[in-house]
Here is the input.
Amino acid sequence: MTISEIMKKMILYSNGNTHDINHFMKVYGYAKMIGECEHLAAKEQKILEIAAILHDIACPLCREKYGNTDGKRQEEEGIPLVYSFLKGTGEEQEIVERTAYLVGHHHTLTDIDGMDYQILLEADYLVNADESGYSKENIRNMMEKVFKTDTGKMLLQGIYLRDDK
Here is the structure.
């Protein structure tokens, strides 16, 4: 299944929730760009892009089951949803497993074990900073403590910290 086909399937899965669709499309755009600029290997780039599309797959379930989209619950509920979503797509087991792992950790800022994981965190944060109106202090703190890629830092600086020289 191509990235575009996975995206179409996720749009349908989102059942018309424009916020969810717009969110994962923006995270995907940032993740794709950062991954390409940081020269990820082709397989790692593919995993990153699929994970970016699916990272919030548990949000509808969490809203229904818990009344919110708490990050830890998204991680827990997301793993089996990724396996189900990608079943029958023909994706290699290694890609499915790593995608599920990334979705199951996309709110965990410790023990980051790969560039795909790092970039997914950065891409999601770039979108959340706008959608949630994070303070400049929060953004500076994330840039200092969490962001590792040159591209992610450039985007954070260029979008949110232009006045900081």
